[in-house]
Design goal:
With 342 residues, this protein is an alpha/beta fold. The protein folds into two domains: 3-247, TIM Barrel; 256-324, Orthogonal Bundle (Non-ribosomal Peptide Synthetase Peptidyl Carrier Protein, Chain A), CATH 1.10.1200. The protein contains 14 helices and eleven strands. Strands 3, 4, 5, 6, 7, 8, 9, 10 and 11 form a nine-stranded parallel sheet that branches. Strands 1-2 form a two-stranded antiparallel ribbon. Helix 4 (78-89) links the parallel strand 6 (69-74) and strand 7. Helix 12 (276-290) packs antiparallel against helix 13 (298-306).
């Protein structure tokens, strides 16, 4: 049984990675219903949370259906991170996660996210301050290092465990790689094999099929897997992996009825949580992924990404089902890169 503090996650948990502009409550709902064991909020700026910025405080919203759930924070100042941890703790998540992995310029160039990989003493001080600021378990998500010459994840893991984190998720790329090239899980395995490391180690990067999930579980010995981009438009991947682990067989592909139902539920919750206009606008990034690969889909897609009328959107989704019912997409949604996805 894998545990983070007192949180029991099963024998080999599958986690939804925190993704900016993606892993909001509506998306987390469809992933939870399709087998995600642990989920995280979009990352929240410590500076924004302390200033009570609307976008940051809204990200604190969590719902009973999605537990266990962690609130992910990022920042560059130790005291600010400690204070925002106290604020986030009052939202009553199951744990606090620190982002030391985001590679995008708007984060890293401000000394946050993956930038902390260049200053391990500061990372350790910041992490210790966060641990002391909450009674909740604290976890970290990071990368192999800043660049090819400074892959320092083994030292990072030991230092962060020493100051009190209770689990570590590692993306198998450096900051310099961003999302290019193949994720290297060999260093993740070395961290897991380190006799000093007692906390759970979770691997992240390039898991896009049940077959690869099983291969990487067996080859690299991690305690669980974190899935990000492969879940966008394809929340079924979690249950597919679990079924494959249990039986060695693939689940049937999701039907068009299931795809439309997931998109409808996603849209309904987006409207409820964000309000009509914002819910419509922010849902637009997801339609192409739910229905990627459909032939002659462009006319319907243009309505979905241009209309501001709720009734027209739902009618168009009904039209997708009417036109493509019985059609199976043989390939999963293409992995789409979003700023902040890690």
């Amino acid at each position: 049984m894998v545990k983070i503090g007192d949180i029991e996650l099963g024998e080999f948990p599958l986690m939804l990675a925190p993704m900016e502009d993606v892993s909001d409550p509506p998306f987390r709902q469809v992933c939870k219903e399709n087998g995600a064991d642990m989920m995280y909020t979009e990352f929240i700026s410590s500076e924004g949370l302390i200033r009570n910025a609307a976008k940051s405080t809204m990200k604190l919203d969590i719902f009973p259906y999605e537990r266990p759930v962690g609130i992910q924070l990022f920042g560059s100042d130790v005291e600010t991170m400690a204070e925002c941890t106290r604020i986030a703790t009052r939202a009553n998540p199951d744990l606090i996660d620190i982002n030391y992995g985001c590679p995008v310029k708007k984060v890293a160039c401000k000394g946050a996210g993956a930038a902390l990989l260049q200053d391990i003493p500061l990372m350790a001080r910041m992490t210790e301050a966060v641990v002391k600021a909450t009674h909740l378990p604290v976890t970290v998500k990071t990368r192999l290092g800043w660049n090819e010459e400074t892959k320092n994840i083994e030292e990072v893991a030991e230092r962060l465990q020493d100051v009190g984190i209770q689990a570590l998720s590692i993306h198998g790329r450096t900051r310099a790689q961003m999302y290019k090239g193949e994720a290297d899980w060999r260093l993740i395995a070395k961290v897991k094999e380190n006799p000093r490391i007692k906390i759970p180690i979770f691997g992240n990067g390039d898991i896009d099929s049940p077959q690869k999930a099983l291969e990487y579980r067996n080859r690299f010995g991690v305690d669980g897997i974190m899935i990000g981009r492969a879940s966008i438009g394809y929340p079924w991947i979690f249950n597919e992996i679990k079924h494959y682990f249990a039986t060695g067989e693939m689940l049937p592909l999701p039907t068009m009825k299931q795809r439309v139902a997931a998109a409808r539920k996603h849209l309904e919750f987006s409207l409820e949580w964000k309000g009509e206009r914002q819910g419509i606008l922010e849902m637009r990034r997801h339609y192409a992924n739910y229905f990627r690969g459909l032939p002659n889909f462009k006319p319907l897609r243009m309505i979905l990404v241009q209309s501001l009328e709720v009734e027209e959107l739902f009618a168009t989704l009904d039209g997708v089902l009417a036109e493509f019912d019985g059609y199976f997409l043989e390939t999963k949604a293409k992995q789409v890169e979003y700023a902040g996805v890690d």
